[in-house]
């Protein structure tokens, strides 16, 4: 999905460009239009801009002046200059600012379509998989992992108890952050690994993901990556001011910027690395002594799955997190490691791998010559707690089959031997995974139904954009579109168009209602554009629709199409 901003101070040209882009349905575009550079700047402050088409000669601020401002906020934005003048004085500065193309007016529609298609192709091919993997291999060879791993474990577990201890570790490891400044935390989870991936391949992919994060964020901030408990974690701070980029000199503004580009990062990872990942963005202003608690809360949120399957993006939801930590310290490191691994696997939803690891764990325990009874109880309690947490997080206890009685999760003595306990947990796993999949589908349907209800309730008073819906429901625009389409079998933008047409038909039936009033109520800028939209989708004009139903055109002659 790419965001396009069109700016021209000539209304006829602006409408023609806007309508041409709207007809490019083969590309996933969100389009804004502005009649001046100042109006365009206001749009740019609230929305990410991937492609800018701007007139070069405009009052107050020229298109070339605007390009400089755009480069500071959206460095990766592709810019197309439009001009009615072929003078060299305009072409040379445009080329110096590395614009994508320079088009002379009047511009044929075919030229616009071809240029935009080339822009999108370049955006999609800028980051090549070969380059990403070469960088990842190089980083893997140079990694000084042991000291960093020790620092990471202590930082995210809360064992670095003082600011001084954290500062000393950061200085010793030469980590490029400042301990006297707060941070933003981003946590990422690989939702599903391709079958057969080795540990080295997964580590390479983590480095490649980090390279993509850097491509989007490195110019705007300081960003330090970690891998902790199977999650990718990034600590982010504002960059040092160098006089050239002063757009993100406070964490609140930087936090907004990161939220705007997370879906592009997610899309790039899916496109180039073929991996679905979920991303969670903390609130801004996280103190260093609060990083461990914030990380645990974010992991708990991701582990719960939030009922939305893969490729989730959640922003500023930390206040709503209520994790439950009831684990006990275990005496043996190997058993503790196995328990943690099983917990990660059951939360990941990989049934086959979890069952294999569970069976292997029971084999290893049964192979022990002597296992103290207290340790047997401890293992049973941890396994039962793991399954109970899974059941309670997903609220599926009422649906547990009768032959899988819950008492088996609270009474160790019901199992004559460990093979019986293994068989029970394997049967329970099959049943729980099946129930959880059904619950995910139910939650997705509930969210889509809420979106429908919101659109229907609000459509008569305002035009609801895709970006507005995404912000309202705290989801990225790309994930919202995929979720809606998977549940309803129709893209969200098409559904919103259908609702506008349904509402248009209702309003046109109101006696005395002028066509221009209907257009304004539905969010169209003028009656002619509404007429064109209506005829394209219905096959007749609004006036003909009124006449076909035998309704007089609001106290005027039937030929007046602007009423």
Gap from first CA to last CA: 37 Å
Count of domain modules: 4
Fraction of residues in β-strands: 5-15%
Shape: globular
Task: Lay out the secondary structure.
Elements lengths: L1 E6 L3 H12 L6 E6 L2 H10 L4 E5 L7 H11 L4 E6 L4 H9 L4 E4 L4 H17 L3 H14 L2 H13 L5 H11 L10 E7 L8 H19 L3 E8 L2 E8 L12 H23 L3 E5 L9 H13 L9 E3 L17 H16 L2 H16 L6 H22 L23 H41 L7 H7 L4 H12 L3 H17 L6 H7 L5 H12 L3 H7 L15
Parallel strand pairs: 1-2, 1-3, 3-4, 4-5, 9-10
Antiparallel strand pairs: 6-8, 6-9, 7-8
Keywords: Coiled coil, Cytoplasm, DNA-binding, Phosphoprotein, Transcription, Transcription regulation, Two-component regulatory system
InterPro entries: CheY-like_superfamily, Homeodomain-like_sf, HptR, HTH_AraC, HTH_AraC-typ_CS, Sig_transdc_resp-reg_receiver, Tscrpt_reg_AraC-type_HTH
Protein name: Two-component system response regulator YesN
């Amino acid at each position: 999905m790419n965001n396009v901003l069109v700016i021209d101070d000539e209304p006829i040209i602006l409408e023609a460009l806007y309508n041409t882009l709207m007809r490019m349905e083969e590309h996933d575009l969100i389009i804004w239009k502005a009649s001046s550079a100042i109006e365009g700047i206001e749009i740019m402050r609230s929305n990410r801009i991937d492609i800018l088409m701007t007139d070069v000669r405009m009052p107050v601020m020229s298109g070339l002046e605007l390009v400089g401002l755009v480069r500071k906020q959206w460095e990766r934005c592709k810019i197309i200059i439009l001009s009615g003048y072929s003078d060299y004085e305009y072409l040379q500065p445009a080329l110096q600012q590395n614009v994508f193309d320079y088009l002379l007016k009047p511009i044929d529609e075919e030229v616009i379509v071809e240029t935009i298609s080339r822009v999108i192709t370049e955006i999609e091919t800028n980051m090549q998989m070969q380059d990403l993997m070469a960088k990842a291999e190089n980083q893997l060879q140079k990694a000084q992992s042991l000291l960093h791993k020790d620092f990471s474990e202590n930082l995210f577990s809360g064992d670095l108890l003082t600011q001084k201890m954290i500062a000393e570790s950061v200085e010793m490891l030469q980590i490029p952050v400042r301990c006297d400044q707060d941070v933003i935390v981003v946590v990422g989870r690989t939702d599903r690994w391709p079958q057969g991936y080795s540990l080295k391949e997964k580590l390479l992919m983590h480095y490649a993901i980090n390279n993509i994060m850097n491509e989007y964020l490195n110019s705007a901030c300081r960003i330090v990556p970690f891998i902790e408990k199977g999650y990718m974690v990034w600590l982010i701070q504002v960059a040092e001011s160098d006089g050239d980029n002063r757009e993100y000199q406070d964490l609140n503004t930087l936090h907004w910027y990161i939220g705007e580009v997370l879906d592009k990062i997610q899309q790039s990872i899916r496109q180039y690395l073929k991996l679905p990942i979920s991303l969670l963005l903390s609130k801004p202003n996280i103190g260093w002594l609060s990083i461990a608690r914030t990380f645990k809360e974010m992991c708990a949120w991701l582990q719960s799955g939030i009922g939305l399957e893969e490729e989730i993006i959640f922003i500023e939801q930390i206040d709503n997190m209520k994790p439950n930590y009831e684990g006990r310290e275990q005496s043996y490191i190997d058993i503790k490691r196995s328990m943690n691994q099983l917990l990660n696997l059951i939360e990941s939803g990989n049934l086959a791998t979890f069952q294999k690891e569970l069976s292997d764990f029971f084999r290893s325990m049964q192979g022990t010559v002597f296992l103290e009874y207290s340790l047997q109880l401890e293992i049973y309690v941890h396994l039962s707690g793991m399954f109970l947490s899974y059941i309670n997080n997903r609220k599926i206890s009422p649906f547990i089959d009768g032959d899988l009685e819950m008492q088996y999760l609270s009474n160790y003595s019901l199992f004559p031997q460990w093979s019986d306990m293994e068989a029970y947990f394997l049967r329970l796993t099959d049943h729980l995974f099946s129930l959880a999949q059904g619950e995910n589908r139910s939650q997705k349907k509930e969210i889509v139904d809420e979106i429908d209800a919101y659109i229907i309730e609000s459509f008569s008073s305002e035009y609801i954009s895709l970006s507005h819906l995404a912000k309202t429901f705290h989801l990225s625009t790309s994930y919202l579109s995929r979720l809606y389409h998977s549940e309803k079998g129709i893209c969200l933008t098409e559904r919103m168009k259908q609702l506008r047409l349904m509402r248009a038909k209702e309003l046109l039936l109101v006696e005395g209602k002028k066509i221009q009033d209907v257009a304004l109520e539905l969010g169209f800028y003028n009656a002619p554009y509404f007429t064109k939209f209506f005829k394209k989708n219905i096959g007749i004009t609004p006036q003909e629709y009124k006449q076909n139903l035998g309704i007089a055109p609001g106290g005027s002659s039937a030929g007046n199409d602007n009423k």
